[in-house]
Amino acid sequence: MNIHFFGAKAKGILPAAFILAILLTVFPRLETAQAQTGAMPLPIYLAPRQDGLPGTGKENDPYDVSTQPKFDTLFRKLYLSQGAYEFHFAPGTYLTLGGWGNYGYDNWVALSNWKFYGAGIDRTVLKLAGYRYLKPEDKIPAAAGVIGQAPWGRRGIEVKDLTIDCNWTGFAARTTAPFTPPDKGALAELSVDDAPKLAIDIGKYVFLQNPDRSKVGIYTLVSINNIGSITVRNDVSDPPGYGIRWFHGAVVPAGCLVAPYLNTTGIGIGSIDSIVERVHVTNTGAPVYEGPLGIFIGALKGEYEVRPASGNIIRDCLVDNLWGESGWGIAIASNNPDTGDDGTFIEGVVEGNTVLSTNGTHQGFSGWGTGHVVWRNNVARDCFVGWFEDSGYNRNLTIEKNLFDNNHIGIQFSAGTYWKESVIRNNRIIIPSAGIGIWSNGNVTDSTIENNAFISIGKGVAIQANPVGSYGNTISGNRISPSLSLSVGAEYLKPAPTGAQ
């Protein structure tokens, strides 16, 4: 066994703590909601009616929400009522500006005990219809999503049996001819398929992405005309803090996606005792380091009084057609890692889900600041990392019986504050050439990696373990392809030092 010492995090991965900070900005933490806790939801029936009648919301007379204004007007009214509702959607497509980010307080967001029940995946489709600018004077779009929630600390939200289309490509045009990206400060004219639409939707910045979904860059929009072209300028660190606007390749071919500077997300709720089940989230995306989220549940410790752990469930869902760069397919976070005073906890479950990355830059599954959660029988394919964590307190986690297929890193966890008393077992990890099966990146204690199958058709690393801050761990019973090596820091397997807790 070759012993090496590793301390650096993988390049290109956005720290989970940074995404959590973004979420706390997008979901401001206001006063804890007091309404509808424990309330029985009132059934409301909805349909994209074509008979011209408004409906009464009864099973035999559903409300007409056939247009975006009708949908959002009704949901805004119900949001302001602070009631608990059980929404039953007939088959069809529903357009909404959603309940996320800047929309939350002048549109609607999900409240405690709101239930969204569709007629089945791809039969009921909730589709993002638009977004609003974060800074109207600059026309820089904000985050936009379909089902969101703020302030944090709700409970009992459910989303089942429907599709959520985040419509990222729907806000974009495509180039109709090849072009050469400009140098810093230089201008370039792009022929596009829908210039008038871009004039309405793009704002100040445009995100350009190749047809194969490899990254191209972010540019400042200089001008748009009505004969099918736009002019862009390649800038450095504009807006401030986002680094150099880069590009790949000497010539960008025709068909390049020209999209707004926009983060679209499917479900993002800060809630306890909530369920997302049999949901398909598709067409989500974002430009550089503005990680989109397919499905996210995070109940922050200390913002509720009922349960010491969240008990959230994400089951039998599909997240695919991810665009842009970075971001998460399915994440569950801030599921209190410690038990309550009485020693009880409510386990979180992420089970039977599939995440398919389209360009290899996303994290399939993730959990941070989390405890007593099991990830079981999931599939992450073609992601940068199949399962990812690098932040917060993490304890009593189980990752078992999953398939991690052709991800650059199968599982990567910690150097967060700590990762302890957790187990990774009975997973099947298929490793591409130069890939890593499991990367334990420091501050890991009293945990186990056992009985996993590491399979590769080329050279790579089965297990890479950083010994910094790590001890008392066990690696046993794993089946490893001959072309794969091990790289485990010597201290990683040593017993806990005297007095360690």
What does this structure look like?
The chain is mainly beta and 501 residues long. Helices cover 6% and strands 39% of the residues. It has three helices and 44 strands. The strands form five sheets. It has a 24-stranded parallel beta sheet that branches. A hairpin with a 5-residue loop joins strand 14 and strand 15. The chain is globular.
Outline of this structure?
By secondary structure, the chain is mainly beta. The protein contains three helices and 44 strands.
Q: What composes the largest sheet?
A: 24 strands, parallel
**Poorly predicted sequence stretches spanning 5 or more consecutive residues:** 1-14, 17-35, 300-309
**Estimated structural class:** mainly beta
Specify the overall morphology: globular
Helix content, binned percent: under 10%
Overview features:
single chain; 501 residues; mainly beta; 10-stranded parallel beta sheet; 44 strands; globular
What is this structure's SSE topology?
Blueprint lengths: L15 H11 L15 E6 L15 E2 L3 H14 L3 E5 L2 E5 L18 E3 L6 E5 L4 E3 L4 E2 L1 E6 L5 E2 L2 E8 L7 E2 L12 E5 L3 H7 L3 E5 L5 E10 L4 E5 L23 E4 L2 E7 L1 E2 L2 E8 L10 E6 L14 E3 L2 E3 L7 E6 L14 E4 L2 E3 L6 E6 L2 E6 L2 E3 L3 E4 L4 E8 L2 E3 L3 E5 L4 E3 L2 E3 L2 E4 L4 E5 L3 E2 L2 E3 L2 E4 L3 E6 L8 E3 L2 E2 L3 E5 L13
Parallel strand pairs: 1-2, 1-3, 3-5, 4-6, 5-11, 6-11, 9-18, 10-19, 11-20, 18-21, 20-22, 20-23, 21-24, 22-25, 23-26, 24-27, 25-28, 26-29, 27-30, 28-31, 29-32, 30-33, 31-34, 31-35, 32-36, 33-37, 34-38, 35-39, 36-40, 37-41, 39-42, 40-43, 41-44
Antiparallel strand pairs: 7-8, 12-17, 13-16, 14-15, 14-17, 15-16
